[in-house]
Amino acid sequence: MDQYIGFDVDSKKTVACVIQPGKKDIYQTLDTDPVLLRRWLRQQGQGGRHKLHLTFEVSGMSGWLYDELVDSVDELVVSNPSKMPWIYRTAKKNDRIDARKQAVLLLMGEIPSVHMPARAVRQWRDQIQHRRKLVNLRTQVKNRIRAYLKGLGYRRLPIKENWWTQASHAWIRTVFATDFILRDLLDQLDLLHQQIKQVTLRLDERLKHHPGGALLQTIPGVGPRTAEAVLAYVDDVTRFGSGKQMSSYFGLTPKLDESGTCRRLGHISKQGPSVGRWLLVESGWRVIKVSASLRAFYEQVLHGQPSRKKIAVVAVANKLVRVMRAMLLTGECFNERLVLEQERLEAVS
User: Fold this and answer.
1) pLDDT > 90: what percent of the chain?
2) Are 212 and 228 a contacting pair, CB within 8 Å?
3) Domain end point (choices 209, 241, 259)
4) Which of 28, 71, 134, 287 could disulfide-pair with 221, CB 3.0 to 4.6 Å?
């Protein structure tokens, strides 16, 4: 007999709802302790007499909980709550309702599932996010230093150096030796430089051992940071049935507003990993300078209108994702001629 179980999980407690066709729903509140949850699941399975199907929503704890419980059930699905309200709407909301909603959708086969990668891949993603946050922090500190110096009347440094060389920092420390604010900001900047350098070395080492790293970097203008983000978040390229699906995963496809005969494409969805989308767009600006085929595609979307530059470069990023998917599937390096031929075929069709 199949049992469909929905968990509503928080850091302290987990509310479980068990649905079994023909029987009354069962609710139970448990501590969010993997040992207790596994023991409870074994009781529900009754020594293999029941086939257990479990689901819970994706969260900061979902990867850890997935690893702890995946061997205790016959099926484990991590759900996407942002897509769930469109399938199962209710005005009421509490832990029991949320747990039952999960179980019902699992029984119906309508759970909007989330791909759950291996622990090593999740850690790789965390490292990529960590580096991006460090870079953002460094930018904030730089902006504070420049703003502070401008407040002291220094719109530019009196020495022939840019703001962020070692000579510039030495000059600032010498001239403003008693200014503890500038000293603290420069110390923060030095620390962030070292932290970024260390995490970058670790990421470079991780990418070096991935066969797709060197492959994706054969695309002119695509560097290691973009390659690693795509590889880490795609994980298994075969889970995307088309290039459009992979572009949609990175939030690079336009939203569709369709009613009757009216069909309007809006802004891109911006769903999925923001760090991957940001890096792909940054790569888009670079590739149009060094790749003839992608430059031609950019000019085609631009259509001679400077106001469409951002639209065109996002379209290039979308195109890059499709090209990357094809390369990862075939194992072939980037080929300008094939991209141009594909553009001509799409233009004819």
Assistant:
1) 73
2) no
3) 209
4) 287
Distance of alpha carbon 250 from alpha carbon 277, whole angstroms:
6
pLDDT category at 340 given cuts 50, 70, 90 is: confident
d(CA 174, CA 155): 18
Query: For 116-127, what is the mean pLDDT?
Result: 95
Please report, to the nearest 10 degrees, the dihedral formed by the alpha carbons of residues 284, 278, 318, 210 taken in order: 90
The pTM score is: 0.87
Q: Which domain holds residue 285?
A: 219-348
Interacting residues of 112 by C-beta distance below 8 A, sequence separation 6+:
79, 80, 83, 84, 87
Do residue 88 and residue 192 come from a single domain?
no
Cβ neighbors of 34 (< 8 A, separation 6 or more) are 65, 68, 69
Last residue in a domain, options 149, 183, 209: 209
Q: How many CA atoms, within 13 angstroms, populate the side-chain half-sphere of residue 99?
A: 22
Query: Residue 331 burial (CB < 10 Å; 0-12/13-18/19+)?
Result: exposed
Ramachandran sector of residue 162 (left: φ over 0; alpha: ψ -120 to 50; beta: rest): beta
The answer to whether residues 23 and 72 touch, using CB atoms and an 8 Å cutoff, is no
**Residue 144: other Cβ atoms inside 10 A:** 15
> From CA 189, how far away is CA 199, in angstroms rounded?
15
Distance CA 284, CA 312 (A): 9
The token pair that represents 316 in the structure block: 């290039």
Q: How confident is the model at residue 21 (pLDDT cuts 50, 70, 90)?
A: confident
Token pair in block for residue 342: 């594909």
Helices (H), the chain: 34-45, 62-69, 95-108, 119-151, 166-175, 180-208, 211-216, 224-234, 243-249, 274-290, 292-302, 309-330, 336-348
Q: How does the average pLDDT of the chain come out, rounded?
A: 90
Answer whether residue 287 shows pLDDT above 90: yes
Identify which of 7, 162, 142 has the alpha carbon closest to the alpha carbon of residue 79: 7
Same domain, 226 and 343: yes
Distance CA(31)–CA(45), nearest Å, equals: 19
